[in-house]
Amino acid sequence: MTFETFIFYLLGFIAAASGLMMITVKNPVKAALWLVLAFIATAGLWILAQAEFLGLVLILVYVGAVMVLFLFVVMMLDINLVVLKEGFTRYLPIGAVAALATFALIYMVVGPDRFGLQAFPAPTPLPADASNTKMIAVPLYTTHVYAFILAAVLLLVGIVAAISLTLRRRPPKEVQYQDIDAQVKVQAKDRFEMIKMAPVVEPEIKKEEKEE
Amino acid sequence: MFNALQNWLSSFLYDWLAILITLLLQAVAVILPVMLAVAWLTFAERKVIGYMQVRMGPNRVGPAGWLQPIADALKLIMKEIVLPAQSNIYLFVIAPVLAIAPAVAAWAVIPFDDGVVVADIDAGVLYVLSVASIAVYGIVVSGWASNSKYAFLGALRASAQKISYEIAMGFALVTVLMVADTMNLTKIVEHQQGGFWHWYWIPLLPMFVVYFISGLAETNRAPFDVAEGESEIVAGFHVEYSGMAFAVFFLAEYAMMILISFMTAIMFMGGWLSPFEGIPGLETLFAWVPGIVWISLKVAFLLFLFLWFRATFPRYRYDQIMRLGWKVLIPLTIVWVFVVGLMQYFKLGPWFN
Predict the structure, then answer these.
(1) Domain span including residue A165
(2) pTM of the full predicted structure?
(3) In chain A, how many domains are there?
């Protein structure tokens, strides 16, 4: 067994085991953390398969951003686990059948018949100075540029839709908003006014003192 | 030097053992100076802020207080590590490891001089970004596992803040990649050759500022240190940690500070290049200075900025931090990506032709 095969089986074992832990562990926060480990192991596998750019981007995007937001939400949920576990044994046969069916479908599509070693032999090692990033970038921005732009526009539409669905401005009676522009533009004369007025003299006090 | 060592070792050992020993020695050669720099950075911080506030700072241990970091380390090692009864013990213990591992791992691709780098990989910038993005898990996991409201609030603040500023940071680096046409950190420095007016901080001045501000926010340093927020949430995510477990968080934060300073120096300030390059007379006068001295001076200056900002600025309010990140820095970086693209298309100025 070469060193590379050892690393491959190690990462594969970590990915499979953490995937299994993710769906069996009770606590949702721990499940999210197991998923993070699965992502990192998968990124390692991709880097082993000479997809360095994709592997690093998987860590940057999914581990560094998406899963943190996931954790952010899951941590704040107060999930009652007892309610979730209700009827586990009752639905177990149906669940098992569904799981087996899904596994069979996945096996038929990505099994060794189509994605075996015969169909996909190990890639020839690239020279040390080959730039993986440029190898992805050039077809992405030339042959597939329209699909790429279309995907970008779709994502933008998704962002706009999500923001417009969640953004609501409540009336100023309920909540007070801060207008930063107004705060920055404010000048001394807007807040502070010099008033000239005649001094108030109280002459009667002197008179009283003399009378005594 | 390490190649010769590996060749010598493989003459009487297994090949993989020789490679492993060499790699371990290389890691020690990088991590040990970084950890020592962290120790004396804490000393520098207390001294600098002390003098800025017209007091002496630590001055009792050793001559002028120079042995203070060792005394601090000894104290932290001796102290008891308290494990809260209601905490999630595995995650509680693993969180400091999650915090320090990325802060150390990212150093693998940082070049200290021409060719002095552990792994000279092609996607160096991407590697640093992705490894640094894992660092947020140390904070999030520690905050959740502590089972304490203060720690939890600190974790929530930190995770939202780090993700927000990572976007601005990434876009600022995209402009550097556009100009340098490579993601290899060594090549980025080589592209800045030819005097300090060729360094990227002049053509990309707004991005230099944005990157450094995002770096401040990424490392949870003042004025963006709401994740700790002593006055509001006592110490944030590490309130339940004591002794060495706390010290590990501390080490991670300062190692990340030095890492951000190195990245800024490499990306925008010419890395190990001499500032006198291209100036007749001075160039030959300072030609004997090794590159590692120049990069250390640049990093020391940037670290001084970190400390200076902490002594100068009051803490931002949390909603203002998010506003600065999303509504000021990110639009600015996106606009500047287009500006750099146009400048390159029209081959503008002395930098883009």
Answers:
(1) 130-171
(2) 0.84
(3) 1
